[in-house]
Amino acid sequence: MFSFHEVSKEFKTDFWEKPFRALDKVSFNLSGGNIVGFLGANGAGKTTGIKILLGFIKPTSGKIEYDPALGKNRSEIFKNIGYLPERPYFYADLTGREFINYIGQLNDLTKLDIKKNGDFWAKSLKIDFALDRKLRFYSKGMLQRLGFVSALVADPMLLILDEPLSGLDPLGRKEFKDIMNQLSSEGKTIFFSSHILSDVEEVSREVVILESGKLVHSGNLLDLVKGKTTDEYELVLDSRESEKIKELGSLQEQGEFCRLVFPQSDFSRVLEQVSKENINIESLKKVTPTLEDIIYRIGV
Amino acid sequence: MNFGKAITIGKFTFIEIYKSKIMINILLSGIVLALLCYIVSEFSFGNPSKIALDVGLGFLSLTTKAIAIFFGATLLKNELESRTIYLILSNPVSRVEFLVGKVLGLSGILLLNTILLSIFTTLFYYYWDGVWNSLIAWSILQTFLESVLILLIVLFFSLITNINLAIIFSISIYVSGYAIRGALSLPDVKSNVALTKVVTLISYVIPNFSLFDIKNFVLYKQELDSMYLLGTLGYSITFSLIFLVVSSLVLSSKDLN
Ligand SMILES: Nc1ncnc2c1ncn2[C@@H]1O[C@H](COP(=O)(O)OP(=O)(O)OP(=O)(O)O)[C@@H](O)[C@H]1O
Ligand SMILES: [Mg+2]
Questions:
Q1: A161 interfaces chain B, CB cutoff of 8 Å
Q2: Are residues A162 and A288 in the same domain?
Q3: Which ligand 1 atom minimizes the distance to the CA of A57?
Q4: What's the DSSP call for residue A70?
Q5: Of A242-251, B106-115, B186-195, where does the model show the most confidence?
Q6: Bigger pLDDT: A78 vs A14
Q7: C-beta of residue B82 within 8 angstroms of C-beta of residue B76
């Protein structure tokens, strides 16, 4: 769908200060048909990347390339892109319906198509009841829903969503995720930023991860987890029995239970001890870090 | 440049401004104007139809300029600051189409104001037995085009400074543009060759707003060379286009943070 080629962005903060590097030679390629999570902590550079992608700001160096499948020129490409901004910014004096009409007309849709698609998505996103109100009177979550409707009204191939789930109630988050999954199964590509990893894990197979403006991973989520599995095991047992194995590795007390983490090479030694002392095992499993663990460990 | 896109943007810009309280203001100013015309023509000596025309055209020129300056200063600035511009530019719309559309939308409001106040004015003029003169229409047209030019000037400044400075700069340009030709005929300037050169140079750079002010001809001479009228028409359109192009260049190269 698009690729970043060594994209860097520097912001001049003060005249005499050294420019701040928000993105540092970020390169990745986003193939079509998937949901791709764009991850990173606050200030990692996600929104900056999206603004460059959409041409709102220019990269200091590097460039963006769009897949020819999206279109030959800017106009065709942007017709195939739907965008939901980070914070819902809106025209306070327009009604929801007027706003949808506005966006539909800018995409050269016919009145009929605008009505059909607009009503369909407004209903799916449960905002149809408020379409005749001025946007001034919309709540944050309502604006978010309307923003999603307007991103979808022209039936784009590629959706770029900047933190689509923030500001929504739990039900709304679920509805948005369901719609994202549905769109993906229809062959749309979704690129969405978030820092809530569990949200990403729920819908996404692919991720792009930034840390302080640098790319730390791009690709399959499972590769990331697989690549990072340790060859350690953890054994959980009743803490009253901890005395019996304390020489075998590092022990962590966790209330009634205690947790012993040991390398694979010690596996048989630990098991021997366990059977010799007749220890009651709560659980024994391979240590697999969560995505969250990995992302916060990955750049260190 | 796809004009259809610009017109769509113009349409919704118009709707948005129209729905913000401005229409109430325009109607209120129409009523104030009506009262003003009535009072002045009732309680003064001289020709009441002339006075109605004088007050009406003066009021029209003042209000369109005020709308042009204050709405022009925030027209793009608000879009940039509240980032609503992102919602539009993420569609198949170029920055130039966006700019032209915004200008069209506000020009529509200026036109609406011009038409409404002109109707009020001519009604009063006829009420006091005024006689139609095509210069009245010319004067109204000039006032409208002049306000569009002012809108484009303030828009340009709003792109390179903040709203307050944009308003101050534009008013300064208007005042000096209005006075500059007068300055050339001042004895002090005339007797000083260097000063004449400087003032002449400035008068080429900033538009001469006194050209558009043909109210006195409308009121007293009631005729004006048609070459002059067409000339000033071309003059204001040329200056407007220059400011439009420069603003387009500025907006196109700007980082929209
Ligand atoms: N116009 C600007 N001028 C100066 N610095 C900027 C500008 N825009 C962004 N930055 C800086 O660039 C860095 C990245 O910001 P960005 O908004 O891209 O982060 P983000 O990953 O979207 O964060 P969040 O998760 O909080 O939305 C931040 O340190 C921010 O302060
Ligand atoms: Mg962000």
A1: no
A2: no
A3: 1
A4: G
A5: B106-115
A6: A78
A7: no
Q: With CB atoms and an 8 Å threshold, state whether B88 touches A51.
A: no
Q: How many CB atoms lie within 10 A of CB A26?
A: 23
B3-17 helix and A96-106 helix, angle to the nearest 10 degrees: 170
Residue A272 belongs to domain with CATH number: 3.30.70.980
Q: Where are the domains of chain B?
A: 3-253
Compute φ and ψ for A84, nearest 5 degrees. Answer: -120, 115
In a domain, A225, yes or no: no
Stated as kind and residue range, the H or E segment containing A27 is strand A20-30
Question: What atom in ligand 1 is closest to the CA of residue A46?
Answer: 21
Based on its alpha-carbon atoms, the radius of gyration of chain B, rounded to whole angstroms, reads 20
Q: Are residues A212 and A236 in the same domain?
A: no
- The rounded distance, in Å, linking the Cα atoms of B52 and B124 is 6
Q: Does a structural domain hold residue A145? A: yes
Q: Are residues A11 and A150 in the same domain?
A: yes
Q: Is A186 on the interface with B (CB under 8 A)?
A: no
Backbone angles phi, psi at A42, to 5 degrees: -55, 135
Residue A42 lies in a domain: yes
| Residue A51 CA: distances (Å) to CA of A21, A63, A167 | 15, 13, 20
In chain A, what are the helix, strand and coil shares in percent, each to the nearest 5?
A: 40, 30, 30
Which tens digit of pLDDT belongs to each residue from A20-63?
999 999 999 998 888 999 998 888 999 999 999 999 999 999 99
Q: Is there a single domain that holds both residue A174 and residue A252?
A: no
What ipTM did this prediction achieve?
Answer: 0.88
Residue from B86, B98, B100, B257 to probe the interface with A (highest A Cβ count within 10 Å):
B86
* Domain final residue, candidates A159, A185, A220: A220
Please indicate, yes or no, whether residues A113 and A171 belong to a single structural domain of this protein.
yes
**Domain match, A137 and A281 both:** no
Number of domains in chain A: 2
